[in-house]
Amino acid sequence: MTDPDAHATPPADLLACHDCDLLQTEPALAPGETARCARCNAILARNPPDSLDRTLALTFTAAVLYLIANLYPLVGLEMQGRRVEVSLFEAVHILWRDGVEPVAALVFVTAQLFPVLELSMILVVLLPLRLGRVSPRLATFFRLVRSVQPWGMVEVFLLGMLVSLVKLSHLATVILGTAFWATAALIVVLTLAARAFDTRLLWQLAPGDEGARP
Amino acid sequence: MTRQVTAREAGLMSCHVCGQLARSPHGAAQRLRCPRCGAPLHLRKPASITTTWALLLASALLYIPANLLPMMTTASLTGSQEDTILSGVVFLWESGSWPLALVVFFASVMVPLLKIFALSYLTASVQSRSRRGLLQRARLYRLVEFVGRWSMLDIYVITILVALVQFQGLATIQAGPAAVAFGAVVVLTMFAAMSFDPRLIWDPLSDPVDGDPVDPAPERPAHD
Predict the structure, then answer these.
(1) Residues B17 and B2 in one domain
(2) Is Transport found in the keyword set (chain A) (predicted)?
(3) Chain B contacts of A34, Cβ < 8 Å?
(4) Residue B34 located in a structural domain
(5) In a domain, B223, yes or no
(6) A173–chain B Cβ distance below 8 A for any pair
(7) C-alpha–C-alpha distance, residues A182 and A177, integer Å
(8) Same domain, B82 and B122
(9) Which of A82, A156, A184, B114 is deepest in the core (most CB within 10 A)?
(10) How far apart, in whole angstroms, are the C-alpha atoms of residue B127 and residue B124?
(11) Is B4 in the same domain as B61?
(12) Which of A8, A33, A95 sits opposite B175 (nearest CB)?
């Protein structure tokens, strides 16, 4: 409890578990290895191989898929010769028009706005890093990525689409649009990108870590 | 277990965002920021227990209209029909897609309920400074965090149904008042899970009990 040098910076290899606050020394991890908390088993650190390049490649792919998923119709319905197709934004617009604005806003934010914010901010943070130009504003963007992350729910949205299509398949012919498949692919790529992303890398490269480089 | 040292005991605070450790000044109430990423620094999430209780209470109250009021109204040639969350599940079950009926029942009925009960239990156990089932409670919290987002399912189902079934004169679907209440339950329970600080579960371990000497050697994490 008592500390002789109360104002010195803590040792660099020391880290506290974010789930149980236990102090531990950060181990040197081989690529692909994961360190878990000795007390509560939370993941402390991961060392995904080739993190920066892989995350960038996957995030770019995700950005392209996101564009397709938002520009093209998601799903369609054919009933007695009449055909309806909607994109995600049109679906949100219809909800808004129908007077359930809070629900429309929630869908817009979780399925459309936050996923694109997350993608673009990861690019804003990682692209300069890759090019060797480190921006001091990087940390702020990364904080935004972290606060937005839990609210992007593309995978839940896809399951929701599936459920509603099953419900509708009894009364009309269901058409899966281009954007539907793009959304499915987007989920796979987003998952891979999240796995490839090593956040420690970011702080090791970032400035502001006074005295970190000679 | 009692000989392990936490950051708090060592006079350190870890940043919620980047994990950077910083010295926590004694008895200081000033606003501290992370020296590395600039995020506000706290020893523990501020007012964690009170905030979690407030959000849980609000979500428990809204859970009632979310389940009792109609989620959607279907108007067709044969008349109009109102569906609650549960009658939607029953419809799926009866139409033979029972795997989806189970998924929707679990995501829309069970998950919000489970979150409210699990977080209430966690918050109450932290308040009574319980030292039992620490690892189980840590796991329960992680489960709540992981599973919470899936209760948004019904909101998306409604969105697609309303957007697609717009055949004027043939069939239209409109979202009902339960959709707003249900959306609020999902958002509030997610905020409740975020405001709960899982480190509070372990804090009673550092309460003085039998004068156990504190071993300052940091623990080595497990590899896998």
Answers:
(1) yes
(2) no
(3) 223-224
(4) yes
(5) no
(6) no
(7) 9
(8) yes
(9) A156
(10) 5
(11) no
(12) A95
Closest residue in chain B to residue A212, using alpha carbons only: B36
Residue B23 structural domain: 1-43
Q: Which residues contact A25 (CB under 8 A, 6 or more apart)?
A: A11, A13, A14, A15, B218, B219, B220, B221
- pLDDT tens track of chain B, all 224 residues? 445 788 888 888 888 888 888 887 765 556 788 887 778 888 888 899 999 999 999 999 999 999 999 999 988 888 888 999 999 899 889 888 888 899 999 999 999 999 999 999 999 999 999 888 999 999 999 999 999 889 999 999 999 999 998 887 788 899 999 999 999 999 999 999 999 999 999 988 887 665 444 444 555 666 65
Cα B31 from Cα B178, distance rounded (Å): 41
- Cβ contact A21–B17 (<8 Å): no
Task: State ipTM.
Answer: 0.86
Decide if B153 is inside a domain.
yes
Min Cα–Cα distance to chain B from A12, Å = 9
Phi, psi dihedral angles at B196 (to 5 degrees): -75, 135
Q: What's the residue count for chain A?
A: 214
**How many residues are present in chain B?**
224
Among A8-17, A29-38, A104-113, A181-190, which stretch is predicted with the lowest mean pLDDT? A8-17
CA angle centred on B10, ends B123 and B212, rounded to 5°: 80
Return the pLDDT at A47.
Answer: 87
Number of domains in chain B: 2
What does the domain layout of chain A look like in residue ranges?
14-46, 51-205
| Chain B residues lying within 8 Å of A20, measured CB to CB | 6, 138, 198-199, 201-202
Domain match, B20 and B71 both: no
- B224–A34 C-beta distance less than 8 A: yes
- Whether residue B15 sits in one domain with residue B113: no
Q: Which residues of A touch B153 (CB under 8 A)?
A: 156, 159-160, 163
| B34 plus B79 within the same structural domain | no
Q: Are A35 and B221 in contact (CB under 8 A)?
A: yes
Contact check, Cβ <8 Å, B150/A156: yes
DSSP states along B87-115: HHHHHHHHTT-HHHHHHHIIIIIIHHHHH
B224 assigned to some structural domain? no
**CB of A77 within 8 A of CB of B165?**
yes
Residues of A in contact with B5 (CB under 8 A): 22-23
Instruction: Please list the residues that pair with A22 across neighbouring strands.
Output: B6
Q: pLDDT band for A71, please (50, 70, 90 cuts).
A: very high
